[in-house]
Amino acid sequence: MTERLPVDLAKAYRLLNHGPTVLVGSAHAGRRNVMAAAWSMPLDFSPPKVAVVIDRNTLTRELVDASGEFSLNVPARTIARETLFVGSVSGRDADKFADGTGVSAFAGSHVAAPLIDGCLAWLECRVIPEPHNQDRYDLFLGEVVAAWADPRAFRDGHWQSPPGAGHEWRSLHYIAGGNFFETGDAFEVKPAPESDVNS
Amino acid sequence: MTERLPVDLAKAYRLLNHGPTVLVGSAHAGRRNVMAAAWSMPLDFSPPKVAVVIDRNTLTRELVDASGEFSLNVPARTIARETLFVGSVSGRDADKFADGTGVSAFAGSHVAAPLIDGCLAWLECRVIPEPHNQDRYDLFLGEVVAAWADPRAFRDGHWQSPPGAGHEWRSLHYIAGGNFFETGDAFEVKPAPESDVNS
């Protein structure tokens, strides 16, 4: 059972701010899909917006074009294998929700796109129609209409793992060829006194 | 002295694929600046393109608008303090290249925007003019016209730290409020036999 609590929309950008690889969920007319995407980023704070590249040859693209919706899911290291799998095969050739190899999903609150179990955070998004970006660059902009996180990983607007937490609470950063970085240790930088000026 | 070797442009996306926080360098008519940006991503493989959010109120924006060029620099953990500094103050209020608090820079090969010492990799970019994106979303697209990396961190198209390397070779992932993640350990996922299908 995936644990989740709502995330204040004004803090939703923090779920993506550190640049994790995400899973893009999509659904339309009884079909659903999920793919991995290393190319996404926050685009605005409030209302929160995101940008993500969705290749024109993917089933995900077909479903997002048809539905105007998608989910961004931040996978934990524990589903790195599944992340690679859903990023390596097309939903036209394989059932990415099959027992054993694929992922399982649960329903969002605002969009029909599936949310993926085993993730640390979830963003439900509506496409901001920008046909030129979509056609020319495979670039999609979306408004985040709901956001969720596993409170064991992110709560009160901050990433914070349980004391003594292991690597299962770390997110993923895809490199290439099946290689990932996991998210490393957090640390705080104290500004030097000289830099204490208003920005 | 910053060590650097050229990166094959077809592999340049890998310098950003894992979602590091970057420094955006800019210059025009004798003025130069650098700011931190957590919101950037690769946009295409070949020719390599990138996307980055550059707020309309920044000096960086003024210089990028005027020059049509910028650099993206991937800072190492060793310059986390400087990264926070150049991301916290405006180039209109402080000299970000001042001795002691700021960064030092060297010249690129294709653009006038400064490249920043203490980084692991550098991308020289020309703006792909998309006025609607720039005006409405502060979103800039750029073509990567040259790329470089410190061969101790990235060589032969792959991130690879020296044996026994410490945290000084890790990149940064900004969270908020002066908090960063460093890039964690790399690991390889071997696809399950069932997933050995063409994508």
From TrEMBL, chains A, B:
Cofactor(s) the record lists: FMN
Domain of life of the native organism: Bacteria
Record's keyword annotation contains Flavoprotein: yes
UniProt keyword Disulfide bond, yes or no: no
Cited Pfam families: Flavin_Reduct (PF01613)
Span of domain Flavin reductase like: 14-156
Keyword line: Flavoprotein
Family to which this protein belongs: Belongs to the flavoredoxin family.
Record-given protein name: Flavin reductase
